[in-house]
């Protein structure tokens, strides 16, 4: 048996707790040598000092999105392999910088739904994929938008690039659509202090006819999970990316991204989410940022609740937009 890989976690206090459990679940395969967070209570507050003193072979980075690039560069410079949380970076220029620094190292990005067994089974159901559409309606209360320093900030957060990031990345991977593409967006927000969209539609059309449509909101008291309807040359099917559901059947056997990274180091198993696979997601994040602030919906469109703001009827609008592949503005919503 190979010796346990030494692992460190940078960004341990937030979602990092999930990674600590994932590290623990790998048992003898890994040895946690350090935790690091700028908040007290962990082994280190300075990740550079930690990298110098503990020399981990593998590092998990789970810090806020805008800190990913500098920390990732330090980790790669120190000679470690890296599991970097999503979104890896926020611009294509940063993507290229990171890709160059990762030459000769293993770099996995934390879109964990790409380890889903549904991905292997899908082609057998639908054949060559021609289109996908996502309908998601969730409720996020006011305090969601103050949960951390980067919550609600331009280029870092938002229904498309954060809350529904896994749905978006999964749909990009399922359709295989990459730039150049034709992108159109229709984005709204319900809170003046929040710079990003909480409600949006997105349409992507590839030159060869493949298409992707996303309709999402965080202002719905009726829950629509964000499943992906996939159409191919031989059929259609419904993918529940969060629970590995394919047409309602939950498939066992999701591969964890850290485990896959260890398999890659030990025996050359291909990485499930190499940086290159996420380039279309970063291209979208960059385009969404470039579009500027979303439209602020007026109070006449909203129903205040004790803990937040609801858009009445939004779940129905999300379903309709996704079914018709039509932007909210094209189906007469919010006018
Ligand atoms: N894959 C998923 O399902 C999933 C789920 C939640 C969050 N995330 C991603 O994980 C990352 C962290 O999200 P979060 O919700 O935990 O954010 P957060 O802001 O709550 O926590 C990030 C942690 O990083 C720490 N930190 C900040 N700068 C640091 C630095 N220079 N060195 C060490 N620690 C530092 C903070 O103190 C905090 O404890 C984000 O990229 C987010 O998108 C992924």
Please indicate the percent range of residues in DSSP E strands (runs of 2 or more).
25-35%
Instruction: Kindly report the average pLDDT value.
Output: 97
**N- to C-terminal separation?**
64 Å
Shape: globular
Ligand identities: nicotinamide-adenine-dinucleotide
Strands in their spatial order, largest beta sheet: 13-12-11-10-6-9-8-7-14
What percent of residues adopt helix (DSSP H or I)?
25-40%
Q: What is the makeup of the main sheet?
A: 9 strands, mixed
* CATH homologous superfamily placement of the largest domain: Dihydrodipicolinate Reductase, domain 2
CATH topology of the largest domain: Dihydrodipicolinate Reductase, domain 2
Can you offer a commentary on this structure?
The chain is of the alpha/beta class. It has two domains: 5-105, NAD(P)-binding Rossmann-like Domain (Rossmann fold), CATH 3.40.50; 117-249 and 275-331, Dihydrodipicolinate Reductase, domain 2, CATH 3.30.360. The chain contains ten helices and 16 strands. Helix 4 links the parallel strand 4 (81-84) and strand 5. The radius of gyration is 20 Å and the shape is globular. The model has no long low-confidence stretch (mean pLDDT 97). Residues 10-11, 13-16, 36-39, 47, 62-65, 67, 71, 85-86, 110, 112, 148 line the site of nicotinamide-adenine-dinucleotide.
Summarize the structure.
Pfam families: GFO_IDH_MocA (PF01408), GFO_IDH_MocA_C3 (PF22725). With 335 residues, this protein is α/β, with parallel strands linked by helices. The protein is built from 10 helices and 16 strands.
């Amino acid at each position: 048996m190979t010796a346990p890989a030494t692992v460190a976690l940078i960004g341990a206090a937030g979602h990092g707790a999930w990674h600590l459990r994932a590290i623990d679940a790998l048992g003898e395969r890994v040895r946690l040598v350090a935790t690091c967070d700028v908040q007290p209570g962990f082994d280190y507050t300075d990740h550079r000092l930690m990298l110098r003193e503990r020399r981990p072979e593998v590092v998990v980075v789970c810090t806020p999105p805008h800190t990913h690039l500098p920390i990732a560069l330090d980790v790669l410079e120190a000679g470690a392999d890296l599991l970097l949380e999503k979104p890896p970076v926020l611009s294509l220029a940063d993507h290229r910088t990171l890709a160059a620094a990762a030459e000769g190292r293993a770099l996995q990005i934390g879109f964990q739904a790409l380890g889903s067994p549904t991905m292997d089974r899908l082609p057998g159901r639908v054949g060559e994929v021609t289109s996908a559409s996502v309908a998601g309606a969730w409720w996020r209360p006011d305090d969601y938008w103050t949960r951390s320093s980067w919550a609600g900030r331009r280029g870092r957060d938002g229904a498309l690039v954060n809350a529904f990031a896994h749905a978006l990345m999964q749909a990009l991977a399922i359709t295989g659509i990459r730039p150049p593409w034709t992108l159109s967006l229709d984005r709204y927000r319900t809170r003046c202090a929040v710079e990003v969209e909480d409600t949006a539609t997105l349409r992507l059309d590839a030159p060869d006819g493949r298409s992707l449509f996303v309709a999402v909101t965080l202002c719905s008291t009726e829950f629509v999970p964000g499943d992906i309807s996939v159409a191919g040359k031989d059929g259609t099917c419904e993918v529940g990316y969060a629970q590995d559901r394919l047409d309602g059947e939950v498939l066992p056997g999701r591969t964890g991204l850290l485990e896959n990274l260890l398999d890659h180091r030990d025996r050359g198993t291909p990485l499930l989410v190499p940086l290159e696979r996420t380039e279309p997601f970063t291209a979208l994040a960059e385009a969404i940022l470039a579009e500027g602030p979303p439209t602020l919906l007026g109070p006449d469109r909203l129903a205040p609740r004790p803990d937040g703001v609801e858009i009445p009827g939004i779940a129905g609008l999300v379903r309709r937009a996704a079914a018709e592949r039509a932007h909210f503005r094209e189906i007469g919503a919010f006018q």
